[in-house]
Amino acid sequence: MKFCIIRRPATVLMIFTSVIIISCSQAELTPYQTMVKEELNRGVSYDSLFNGLHFKMTSTHFYEHCFEMNQQGVFFQHGGSEEIIIKYDQDFKYPVEFVFYPEFEEEQITEIKGHFYYPMGTGFNKEFYAPRLQLELVKKIEEWYGGRSFLKVQGPDQYSGDAYAKIDGNRQIMLWNHSDNHQVMILFSDLTKKVK
Q1: How many domains are contained in the chain?
Q2: Within a domain: residue 49?
Q3: Which domain holds residue 99?
Q4: Which residues, in sequence order, are bridge partners of residue 187?
Q5: Using CA atoms, how far apart are residues 12 and 22, in angstroms rounded to an integer?
Q6: Which residues lie below 8 Å from residue 153, measured CB to CB, with a gap of 6+?
Q7: pTM for the whole thing?
Q8: Nearest of 134, 93, 114, 119 to residue 49 by alpha carbon
Q9: Which of 170, 169, 172 is closest to 188 using CA atoms?
Q10: Series of mean pLDDT values for 10-residue runs along the chain (196 residues)
Q11: Residue 2 in domain
């Protein structure tokens, strides 16, 4: 058996430093980063979102689908904007509305951002505050989508409090409270478009 003896101290130091950096970088993955890595490494694609919408849906197909869903009384236009509303009268403790609109990249849906809120909520009734709705949404979305449970993560800013992330394959669902304390923000993302 032959051994290779390294005679240059600089080379030994460089190899030792590389091993430490690699070990530390692997050890320092947050639970969120670990979940992202595990799910993307599965190579499974979950493109379905909700009510027939999905990642890679073309903008033309999206508008046609929205028209059909409006005719069925499922999607409603949000005021004078392009945003869409879905009304949930039975799924939550109180009626909830979901306002959303997709982000298109090369004419295909890559993410959908929106917010949930209690339409009957007022500024003074804590029964209708976002943290209560956020916890309801965590349970309801886990029920609707199955797969992994939500993981508590750091919110996007100092005002959002706890945020929750759920990742199944390429599909990430992120929930956090808006700073107004009355809306729960939601973001559906195709991680294959974000993680290179």
Answers
A1: 1
A2: yes
A3: 30-193
A4: 113, 174
A5: 16
A6: 31, 32, 162, 163, 164, 165, 174
A7: 0.82
A8: 114
A9: 172
A10: 43 39 61 95 95 97 97 90 93 95 96 95 79 95 96 80 94 93 94 78
A11: no
